[in-house]
Batch of 2 targets.
Target 1
Amino acid sequence: MTSENPTPPPPKAGQFFLKIEPLQGKEAGRFGGLYLRQYSVAHPAVLLTPGPPKFLRANMADTEAGAGVEFTSWAPHHAGRKWGLVLSNGGDGDSGSPAFWKPVEIAEDRSDKSLKGHSDEGWTGWMVSEWSLGYPQLFWTTHRLEGRELPAFCERVRIVREVIE
């Protein structure tokens, strides 16, 4: 009989969780300190929750592989599987789409090289929004947003590592 709540093994060296923090020099926003986690395999949106993810742990990836982070799971049924951050529609972060922002997902065996922010002039990068899934959701802003204010339910953020001990 398997346990409903298995105990995770100790983390491997260098593993971490990803958390939201305000942009440097900005006051703490309402999403600061929340952890990134996958909504579900069927809907791999990146949600933000007060506690760390149960199974996924982040590792530094080969920077040529994409966003510099890959996720692995300690769950036995996930052995050998890897996930990465990607835009939900595929393509790059600004592929001529008319969208001001695009949903980010944690998808298996994929990573997106375009998820690297730019300066405040022509800024693209991470944004959190109170969206349709009942939790704050992670998005990537595009150059189309330049010069426009974000809606009140959105906030620009940065993602930081929290080492698992």
Target 2
Amino acid sequence: MSGYSMFTHEEALEFLTNQLGVADAQDRLSWDRRTLLDEITTNLQIRLPFTNLGLMSIERDERRRPNLGEIKRDVLSGKGGLCYHLNVANFYILKALGFNVVLASAAIPVWKTHIIVYVHNVEKTGDTFLAEAGVGYPTFRAICLDHDETPTFRDSFLEYKYIKRDGKLLRLHRQGDLGGGRSLKPVCIDGWRVVYTADLKGTSNIEEFYPKFDQMYIYHLQAQDPLITQFHAVFRLVQFPEKRAVIISNQKLILEKDNGLLETEVLEDGDDAILRAVRRYFPAIPEDMATRALANWRRTLQA
């Protein structure tokens, strides 16, 4: 399906203008491609939530990898999704705009499934940028990968950088890092935690990723290896309105304050408090979807 188009050129421009708030995209494609790419990558994180509620709202034996039409629907509606929604949609948006893009496989050390977008020939022939809009951590720029190590960036609450090592691209976190999974010891390099490793080569054929993400989305397949994903066992939403983090993680509401630090509130009034927080901070999430996801998460805790 390397020739598939999720968006027409006109649909992509309309989405950028009306939903991402990106102005003059058509003109900027000829003279401002780098900052346009920065803005698209950033505004996807500002306007769309990284969330597993779409997955958790489905009864576990009926869960499956979303098809490309469903990804488009959920992005256009503002519901967002996981990396497979957000980065795959970004790939097709950028492709429709005429960027030279590929998808690449990645793995989080504790959890095995991630997918990223590389963009080639942005400022000059032969350059490569990472357009990361779907990891649930702030990445408010496209990252130039023309060297073995990027500068250290600080976006929102987080300090991060990328390095190339042993034929892979590594995302590293330091100050502000929220930590990895609880069950395994984090992988660290000189005080930086490895968040994911990614292939340096990509493909334009989305079908190559279907088996990997079938394992993630189909409950009985991921149940054979719980380290494939955590997202059948949590209630999670992350978004960055005005470039500030807003996170609901199970029964915790986490807000970024003016000083860039995160403040955590335990939502002690039960499901009603969690659903009120979803309505307030994530208004594009349908209430019935949030209610079903919350009920299914509660059942997971009781299993």
